[in-house]
Amino acid sequence: MTTAPVDPMIGRLIDGRYQVRSRIARGGMATVYLATDLRLERRVAIKIMHGHLADDNTFKTRFVQEARSAARLAHPNVVNVFDQGQDADMAYLVMEYLPGITLRELLKDYKKLTPEQTVDIMDAVLAGLAAAHKAGIVHRDLKPENVLLADDGRIKLGDFGLARAASANTATGQALLGTIAYLSPELVTRGVADARSDIYAVGIMMYEMLTGEQPYVGEAPMAIAYQHANDQVPTPSSKNPAVPVELDELVLWATNRDPEARPNDAREMLERLREVEPGIRSSHRPLQTQATMVLPGGPMPVAAATAETRVLGAGMAPVAATATLEASDGDDTEALAKSAERRKRRGYWIIALVLLLTGLAAGTGWYFGAGPGALAPVPETAKLAPAAATAVLEKAGFTVEPAERNDPVIPEGQVSGTDPEAGEQAQRGSTVTLFVSLGPQILPVPEVRGAPSADARATLKDFTVVDPNVLQFSEDVAADTVIDVLDVDGKSVGAEYPELGELTLVVSAGPIPDVIALPSAEAEAALTQAGLKFAYLDPVFDNSGEIAEGSVIASEPTTEVVRQGDTINLTLSKGQDLVEVPDVVGKSMSEAKAELEEAEFVVSYSLPDLFLDLATVTSSDPPAGEKIVRGSTITIVGQLTL
């Protein structure tokens, strides 16, 4: 049984203040954790940007924008932002922690909500959104995932990651932002968003809450976007007859394809919602009577069908439409026949129009599904030869434009990538730029010798500094200081080197451990701890008496430059070499001298050498039988014999 990997952020202390406890959710740009603010002793939600996005200025700017946008709002229906900062390479955002669920999770459990529940939630959403619009902020990513339902009943709007200051027309300046199912027609067609784009998303959310499904579905995002741009959102009651007409009208008003026909901002829509709320809660619905037709042939009563529908436009003026069909006796038979003929002709026009629209839909479907407007993934061509990559792209339906760029990984002459990148969707027939590698850039190598190893690594950020460092022992260079920088061949690096090329730091490990006079076991332990090996030479006598027997009398490196893993030769002491003084008393001075020198003593005497053969030894110092160090001096005293 395998276990899930442990998130390395769990238990980490962010910026010396926020202790991460557990993970709450993970999104495309950041992960949200439950944390404890140790300074204020409270639980918070901390949002941490994904590490691979830290160098992307677009995402970092968007992340900081979320903090600034939310910090400008102080409203009970908007998630509070407490703090924002940077810890090492991590950008983070500290927010109010709300235990509970999202509106998306509620819809998954209950499919659809009652009108009363919908009104309650939309009242809170519109109130928070009205505060944002009043502050000049367009949310741009409204969806059920960003509506938080707390356990204590509070409803709050969160995730201002795509928010921007509103102007008359706020252009995104990039690909469509937000979730495709909630994008307004002007965002799809022109990439322009203002407060009315948020209102459109609110209308789609209301539709989904009342019916349990989104108004538009499709296999591809482009198909859904096409429907947003060209179709009018249907009334929720067409899917759920229990929806009151007042909510139908609100949805139609909010999702009008023309931004000018929608509420100007959330405050205007909120006021209308609160106007109709009492009628919805009392389950009051206008009576609708169906038209009744009576066939000719006798006295006929007048049958009337009246239905009143209020369509909310910019001025919210109700428009009354009344249709009355009257039938009388036989005098009106001719009029009825003419009316029937007109209806028949109108039916032909309707059929023709339906056929035309069907053809247009089929043509549009072909264009975006299999024709030139169809989207297709860009094939993977990295590391291929340019000719082979061009053939692959052209076979996939793209036009190829060659280009060159440096690449630190892909060898020169091979394809290093495309724009759009491999796997991204692009229209068939569009141009794909094919980049051929020029190999890595050749960069100047900064001088880091004499610097601490950590500083050297930071300075060499444009290269790949391998781990671990090579440790070299030195009497003259302080520990953890860079002695040299080696290239991939193990030689000192020159003034220039390829981008991301591998470099190795040679760092001082300090002096070789001093093991002289240490017992052999202690010497071995000291060298092993320093990462050195050891070997023993033949032991020697220490006639000085300073090194005890079995202790190190000599330590010699086996290489000129000593690095971890090298061997140190050790020589142990055998102690002092003691020899017994021979008995030379009674022998001639010359015989005594020869015998003592043969025993490796130094002989001292006072007679001239001319008389050595004529003199007899009378005493020696030290005397015979005493043990002394080999090589010591023995003084002999002689007497001439005539």
Structure write-up:
- Pfam families: PASTA (PF03793), Pkinase (PF00069).
- With 642 residues, this protein is α+β, with helices and mostly antiparallel strands.
- It folds into 6 domains: 13-96, 2-Layer Sandwich (Phosphorylase Kinase, domain 1), CATH 3.30.200.20; 101-281, Transferase(Phosphotransferase) domain 1 (Transferase(Phosphotransferase), domain 1, Orthogonal Bundle); 375-437, 2-Layer Sandwich (Trypsin Inhibitor V, Chain A); 442-508, Trypsin Inhibitor V, Chain A (2-Layer Sandwich), CATH 3.30.10; 520-572, Trypsin Inhibitor V, Chain A, CATH 3.30.10.20; 578-640, Trypsin Inhibitor V, Chain A, CATH 3.30.10.20.
- Helix content is 27%, strand content 23%.
- A 6-stranded antiparallel sheet has the order 1-2-3-4-6-5, covered by helices on one side.
- α3 (115-134) runs antiparallel to α5, α3 runs antiparallel to α8 and α5 runs antiparallel to α7.
- The termini are far apart.
Short description:
It contains 13 helices and 32 strands.
How many H/I helices? 13
Low-confidence stretches: 162-178, 284-333
CATH homologous superfamily name of the largest domain?
A: Transferase(Phosphotransferase) domain 1
Mean pLDDT, all residues: 82
Tell me about the biggest sheet? 6 strands, antiparallel
**Proportion of helical residues:** 25-40%
C-alpha Rg (nearest Å): 47 Å
Please report which band the strand proportion falls in: under 5%, 5-15%, 15-25%, 25-35%, 35-45% or over 45%: 15-25%
CATH topology of the largest domain: Transferase(Phosphotransferase), domain 1
CATH hierarchy, class of the largest domain? Mainly Alpha
| Overall geometry | elongated
* Structural class category: alpha+beta
* Strand tally: 32
The quaternary structure here is single chain
Query: How do the strands line up in the largest sheet?
Result: 1-2-3-4-6-5
Number of domains: 6
Domain PASTA: 376-438, 506-574, 575-639
Pfam family, one: PASTA
Region (Disordered): 404-424
Catalytic activity: L-threonyl-[protein] + ATP = O-phospho-L-threonyl-[protein] + ADP + H(+); L-seryl-[protein] + ATP = O-phospho-L-seryl-[protein] + ADP + H(+)
